[in-house]
Amino acid sequence: MGEPRSPPRTALVGVGALGSVFAAVYREAGVEVTLVEKDPERLGLLRSGQAVVRFPDGTARPLDAPAVGYPLPPGLGPFDLVHVSVKGYDTAGAARDIRPLVGPDTLVLSVQNGLGNLEVLAGAFGPGRVVGGITAHSAQRLPSGEVRYVGGKGPLLAVGPVSPSPHPRLAPLLFGLKRALEARGYAVEIVPDIEPVRWRKLLANVSTNPVAAITGRTAEQMLASPHVCRLIDLLAEEAAAVARARGLSFPELDSPGEFCRWALSGVGPNKISMLQDVEARRPTEIGCLNEAVHAEGELRGVPCHAHRTVALLVRAIEEEYLLPGNPQPG
Question: What is the pLDDT of residue 330?
Fold first, then answer.
């Protein structure tokens, strides 16, 4: 797949909880990284030097990389790698906004939840230059602005091409990133086909995120409830049936509920992302998670009644603060 090279010069787009973790890890690994953030409040925190990621070992690491907002300053790009970690509903807008960062040899890495993101980026930049990235690690943004890196089970990052005919720079660039991260103890897996990995992560997300948003419970509290665990199992079983209908096969499909509860146990006493969004009165990613699974199920004749139900409940929660006239965040 090519020889390793030096770490890629990287723009990291979307410096939320998980984006902040990758920014800190990249800096630790010697990757030259520029942060790109849309939210003015978050951008101000990054520029002030007060943005901090607290790692599982208790150490606090500042995000001391350069940070820019929109419109992008002239002459910033192109980069070797553009790492995209925006929410799924912002992917299309981000693809338009970051075009100045993307040159003929730039690769675009999506480390995002749900379905549709890879397709949007492939449509904008060409499938050969888009890389799917999956992480089983999680993070939580605290009211102070500090990000708590929770950790997770499995490698920090699994990456693989979207196209069977990837850009010739893809392999050496990924090997360069892998070498830099693994030198600091972060496992990176390069896979030939990202789809099974993407659906394995999707399985866990769609089975736990909406349940947390609806119940308001931490991961530990969810796992302590037999009723919540049964709902997680129902959602996992429906999503597994859709994955099989797509022709996918991976071991977790044999016991999907057990896998999702195991993955949730890695979050411990912390809150997972959709509950964080609801509590911060932000839009959720329900559209690219449970609504996307329900739509895929309808397309393939697989009933997904549990997904439709939890999606409606999350939309009902969102409308309390997103509809015009209702109190807005801040």
Answer: 39
Element spanning 244, H or E: helix 226-245
Domain identity same for 207 and 187: no
CB 159 within 8 A of CB 132: yes
Answer yes or no: do 27 and 127 share one domain: yes
Instruction: Check whether residue 254 and residue 176 sit in a common domain.
Output: no
Q: How is residue 311 written in tokens?
A: 């999606």
Cα 199 versus chain centre, distance: 13
pLDDT range class, residue 186, cuts 50, 70, 90: very high
Same domain, 164 and 226: no
User: What CATH number should be reported for the domain holding residue 281?
Assistant: 1.10.1040.10
Give domain status of residue 328, yes or no: no
CB 201 within 8 A of CB 260: no
Range of the domain at 313: 196-322
Asked whether the CA dihedral 46, 51, 55, 61 is positive or negative, the reply is positive
The tens digit of pLDDT for each residue in 304-330 reads 999 999 999 999 999 999 987 664 443
| Residue 123, token pair as written in the block | 């449509």
pLDDT of 204: 96
Tell me whether residue 103 is in a domain. yes
3-state helix, strand, coil in the chain (%, to 5): 50, 15, 40
Residues 235, 307 contacting (CB under 8 angstroms): yes
Shared-domain flag, residues 309 and 213: yes
Listed in sequence order, the residues at least 6 apart from 37 whose beta carbon sits closer than 8 Å to its beta carbon are 14, 15, 43, 46, 67, 68, 69
**Tally of domains in the chain:** 2
Cα–Cα distance measured from residue 225 to residue 45, given in angstroms and rounded to the nearest whole number: 38
